[in-house]
Specification:
The chain is an alpha/beta fold. The chain has 15 helices and 22 strands. The strands form five sheets. It has a seven-stranded mixed beta sheet with strand order 16-22-21-17-18-19-20. Strand 10 and strand 11 form a beta hairpin.
């Protein structure tokens, strides 16, 4: 059996804290010499964790990029890692930090720590899934064959994901977190977010920045936040306030009718405060401790079974470093000089649209792809299709011709054709497409990867002697 390792980084720049982890991903080909290759990631080992730093800010609207860069530079040196050694992973600006004025610029500055192939994203939906993987909720759901909701409660947001037997069924985010309300050392309200203000009014509380605020009022506010979280997970009937505090850019979290949720798991900085004796109420200058106490006396703890998280405050960064990367199928087709490729927008065809292509009709594909290019202000497309298992040669040939005729005339010269296929048919499709295009464009086709509309994809450098390609699927960049 052939094995190789990928060096992965996870960098989480959050509302309250920032941190970094390095992981080793072990990739193995389990097939014998005379069998079709069967490659998978068999081990994920975190071998370095940085201290947890307070996210440096210039003011309420800007991250201190220079200070953050110094922190990361120092941590790379302590770990003995050079940026060029990193092969995969994630740099994520999360929660309220993703909405800072200079978040995009900060992410660009951080790219020098990323190596050749690292996802840089701040989507709340993706963050919810990554945190649920880092907390252990996903693994519990898969291992026990059950449904688990993970609530990752940080400084600015609560990111929530439902795993059903290891599969993501719903995800979303609301603006509820420990840093939504800040209190100075003299007990005055120094910062009140729009979300906290809305919830406070619903609770009948009169709160103004600059005024002294009592512990009782803050506890009432935290109880109000808990009621919203109870609505979110189905313990209460949803109110208009739930939609009002939904995080910008996140998907509405909707419980499928066929799902009965028994288990909850909590991660994030607020979860880190649960069950711990605190010597003071406001050790971080916010309501994180009070919110943790409110959650423990709420219906969230009474109506559900609570599973212990493997990670709380480190859930997102460990998920980012260890769980963002997938491995393509082994029967794939690519031009090696294309790779790596980053941030390719995904155009996913519906079953009906794909069926037209199988019938040789390319007109709908050409029209939709042209619209997609204009809407996304992009030159390239990663076309996602379901594909078919064991299609005949003639139907594959007709399908490849329709794809080529649908995309080739509308793409700028030199732009490659990129395909992500759920079924195991990428190699054959890639060969037929090259024949159709007669060398006009390079082609990349990977399979056994599932995407959704509006995702973005990174394709890494081939590993295992070119056998497979690491792939990161990203959701809602900057929400």
């Amino acid at each position: 059996m052939e094995r190789t390792q990928l060096l992965s980084v996870g960098i989480d720049i959050g509302t309250s804290t920032s941190q970094l982890v390095f992981s080793r991903l072990t990739v193995e080909n389990k097939a014998g010499y005379f069998s079709v290759p069967s490659v998978s990631i068999i081990r994920k080992e975190v071998f370095y964790q940085s201290p947890i730093y307070r996210t440096p800010l210039l003011d309420q609207t800007r991250i201190d990029g220079e200070a953050l860069e110094k922190i990361l530079d120092q941590e790379y040196k302590v770990a003995g890692i050079a940026p060029g050694q990193v092969e995969t992973g994630a740099v994520i600006i999360t929660g309220e930090s993703a909405r800072k004025e200079n978040a995009g610029m900060i992410l660009e500055r951080m790219s020098r720590f990323a190596g050749d192939f690292v996802v840089s994203t701040a989507g709340p939906d993706l963050e919810a899934v990554i945190a649920g993987q880092g907390s252990g909720a996903w693994q519990f759901s898969e291992r026990q064959g059950t449904t688990v909701i993970n609530l990752d409660i940080g400084g600015g947001t609560t990111n929530v994901v439902l795993f059903d037997r290891g599969r993501v069924r719903a995800k979303g985010s609301v603006d509820i977190g420990g840093r939504q309300v800040r209190i100075d050392k003299d007990g005055f309200l120094s910062c009140l977010s729009p979300s906290a203000s809305r919830i406070g009014k619903e609770c009948g509380l009169k709160m103004e920045e600059g005024e002294r605020i009592s512990q009782k009022m803050l506890e009432q506010l935290c109880d109000g936040m808990c009621r919203i979280l109870e609505e979110l997970v189905g313990a209460r009937k949803p109110s208009a306030l739930l939609e009002a505090v939904r995080t910008a850019g996140s998907t509405p979290f909707c419980l499928p009718e066929d799902c009965h949720v028994k288990y909850l798991c909590f991660s994030g900085g607020v979860a880190d405060c649960m069950g711990r004796r605190q010597s003071e109420l406001f050790p971080y200058g916010d309501i994180g401790v009070l919110l943790a106490e409110a959650i423990q006396r709420s219906r969230l703890f009474r109506d559900f079974s609570i599973i212990s998280a493997d990670q709380t405050i480190r859930a997102t960064v460990i998920g980012a470093g260890s769980h963002t990367t997938s491995i393509s199928g082994s029967t794939i087709s690519y031009a090696e000089k294309l790779l790596p490729l980053k941030n390719m927008p995904v155009l996913k065809l519906s079953p009906e649209e794909e069926e037209l292509c199988w019938q040789g009709d390319f007109k709908n594909l050409r029209k939709k792809a042209a619209w997609f290019l204009a809407q996304n202000d992009t030159a390239g497309i990663a076309l996602a299709i379901r594909g078919r298992y064991d299609p005949g040669y003639q139907e594959m040939k007709s399908f490849a011709k329709a794809l080529a005729m649908g995309l080739d005339p509308i793409l700028e010269p030199g732009i490659p054709l990129l395909f992500i296929i759920e079924a195991d048919m990428a190699k054959a499709l890639g060969q037929l497409l090259r024949r159709e295009l007669a060398g006009r464009r390079l082609v990349l086709a990977v399979d056994e990867i599932r995407t959704e509309p509006n995702d973005f994809v990174d394709f890494g450098r081939p590993v295992m002697n070119g056998l497979v390609v690491p792939v990161v699927v990203k959701t809602l960049i900057f929400g």
